[in-house]
Each structure stands twice: as structure tokens, then as C-alpha cells.
Amino acid sequence: MNPISLICILTGVMLNAGAQLLLKAGVSAVGHFDFTRANIVPIGFKLAMQVPIIGGLACYVVSVGVWIIGLSRVDVSIAYPMLSLGYVVNAFAAWYLFGEALTMQRLIGIAIILVGVLVLARS
């Protein structure tokens, strides 16, 4: 994989991870809600007006464009597993930004993901 291809793939991964974090920030601002027939419209409107959610959706749109460019340069069997790097990014970012737990079991899982991506990238 050449440097441009790697940049496209990693940019897509980072945009996807950023989208998840922004969606979490937006839904956290709204708080816990029960999704019932009675509150579909008010909750939907409240969620739709959250700037982080709008930003997260925008990240998804841009990530699809970047991902398409990356897929034009890299085999999908190499590119798609790279998305698992988003799990790693999100785990550490969620710990830092939202105070989510990073247990030993999660850290071991992250290590396994990183080893898998490394093996795949070198193949």
C-alpha cells in the first residue's frame, strides 16, 4: 500500500471514528430517553438540532467520499479490516472525553486488534 492509499484509508477511519464520538456527544446532551410512539417527533427534533450530531453525520458523508477514493486504490480485503482501527481510536477517545472505562479486558482486545491489523497490513 503506497502512502497516498494509506492516507485515504486512515482518513476514512478517523472520520468514521470522529463521527461516532460526535454522535455520542450529541446524544449525551439530550440525555437518556425512551423511544416511544409519543416522543418520536420531539426526541427526533431534539436530536436533529444537536450540533455534534449534525457534525457526526457530516463526518460520515465525507468519510464515504474518502473511503471510495481509498477503495479505488486498495483491495477491499485489506482496506475493510483497517476500519477496526476505529475501535482503538474510539476506545481511547471515549475514555478521555467521556470517562468511559478502559478495563484490562478492553486493552487486551485493543492489542489483539492492533496485532491483527499489523499482520494484515504486512501481507
Question: How would you portray this structure in words?
Answer:
GO terms for molecular function: transferase activity; transmembrane transporter activity. The chain crosses the membrane at residues 48-71, 78-98, 104-121. It is a multi-pass membrane protein. It is found in: Cell membrane. The chain has one domain (3-122). The longest helix has 28 residues, at 3-30. The model has no long low-confidence stretch (mean pLDDT 92). 80% of the residues lie in helices and 0% in strands. It is mainly α and 123 residues long.
Which percent range fits the helix content? over 70%
Largest sheet data: none
Uncertain segments are none
**Sheet/helix structural class:** mainly alpha
The H-and-E topology, N to C, reads as HHHHHH
In the residues, how many domains can be counted? 1
Number of helical segments? Answer: 6
Q: Specify the overall morphology.
A: globular
Mean of residue pLDDT values: 92
Which value, in Å, is the CA radius of gyration? 17 Å
Distance between the termini: 10 Å
Number of strands: 0
- How much of the polypeptide forms β-strand, as a percent range? under 5%
